[in-house]
User: What shape does this take?
Amino acid sequence: MDITLDAVELKGLGDRVFAASPACVCNPLHKSHYPENWVPSNCAYTTQHDRPHIAQITGPSATAGLGIPNGGLQVVNPSQAVYDKILEQLASTATSEYDFADQSLLGDIFHGRWVSLPYIYNALKTLQ
Assistant: This one.
């Protein structure tokens, strides 16, 4: 993938720390164990419904919806400083509140500071 991400020298403090698809928080299958705020109106993909042709090539804003990245596919520049930030957060009590460990953690630490990939990289059948 040819995506411009922050240089390692920024130590995870830039606006393009990693790239990922947004987590689909629509809960289209109505799973009861999903958080109550996981509804279509809070889903980043909902913001693109009026522009389906653009959604094929451009991701929504990293702060759209709940601003949570999906953990399934990520593009990263390996960085000890970013790894250390993740470890520091893992050692905090905040993680006990996370509904989905990897996604919640990354969305918390790097809220709005990641690059959103188009849904085609992590499309759900229910998004058709």
Observations:
- The longest helix spans residues 80-90.
- The beta strands are 18-22, 69-76, 115-116.
